[in-house]
Fold these 2 entries.
Entry 1:
Amino acid sequence: MANVSLYNMDGQEIGTMEVADSVFAAPIKENLVHLSVVQHLAALRQGTQKAKTRSEVSGGGRKPWRQKGTGHARQGSTRSPQWTHGGVVFAPTPRSYKINMNSKEKKAALKSVLTSKLNEGKLVVVDKLTMDAPATKTFVKVMKNLGAEKAYVVTAGSDRNVFLSARNLKDIRLSNAGTLCVYDILKYNKLVLTQDAVKAIEEVFA
């Protein structure tokens, strides 16, 4: 098992922690990481865009002029696409952009990015992350001590004081071990895990 440095909230190294090779030294599968990111971005799309085709636009039931003898091009309806107020030729319709990934693929993608962060030296493990009261300045100081001003912070559970302290910081994303996101791990420069979060992740993915 690999060892990672363990820090306290003051940024001091207080020891090391063993992490499971099955999670933090897994094969890096770039294709699944890419698929996971595409799936995440696709899930953010609402898919509610709609325009009317010529069959859905009201009016246009009568032929605007007779077929021959007028000097105009023949027309069957004033709701054809070439007319003002006509229908749209290939009108967008509501659709789902959902992309499916099975659980094994999701786990492999997550292990890949966790391994990548560790290999790049961008994984920080802190013994605990607690706040006596909501204080954004204090939280910013803790992140600065850890060298993680722009970071994806993962805790084992949800701490209200920590959440309130971090929610207004645009460069910090707070999550818990049960809702890890491949996209967010890649998006932020550093990945900060609490000691309990590491154990929770290993219990699920090891």
Entry 2:
Amino acid sequence: MKKSDALQAMWREYKRTSSVTLRNRLVEAYLPLVDYLSERIAERLPRCVDVDEVRSAGVLGLMDAVEGFDLSRGIKFETYCSLRVRGSILDDLRARDWVPRLVRSRAQKFAAAVRRLQAELGRKPTPPEVMADLKLEPEEFEELQTDLARLAIYSLSQSDENDGDGSPSPRFSSLVDRRNPDPVHILHLQESCSSALRRLDAKEREILSLYYFEGITMKEIGRKMGLSESRVCQIHGEALSRLRREMAAPRAVAQA
């Protein structure tokens, strides 16, 4: 039997039985597609973004795609899967970004205008010149400056203006934590997390521990445990998915 025929037979049997074993075999079969898409997306990201994290989000998208794929629609799974995997990766990347896309887009246009004007004028452009180039009203320019301030990252040890006694004070000395987390809620969350971790099998716990607490890459974990990098990535994704479900269950009960 050809590989494609065997895969189609596996699909039909999985959709008939919803077998977890068959689902895992299908996920394993399409992991190279996740690797390809993850690497393509990672090429356009800052170097600080770990490709393993991108791949993990892609595996979650692949698992959702396998479970949600409808054989009767007559479309190729690769086409459907690519959209789900890309969407899962982009959703994960957006969740890590504290700045809305609109703000970041406006900041990029502002930076491009400043660079263009500086090249034309041979000096740093003035605010009125930037406003004229971007066709902004004074109120709009002020709003843009406020948005740009949200993108700024400062050193907490850097000194701010004098605090009144003639000596500069570091920024961290004036920071105030207004979040006031509820200790009972934190304790409940920690207990739920510990309980969920105990329900994972030994291999899943070891992979999570090596990856998150010891900083070992998926490839190195695979060599250490005698598994392929793709298999480690799959187990990692399944463990995270299970933890999310376990952690969401207590919240749903508490809100009911």
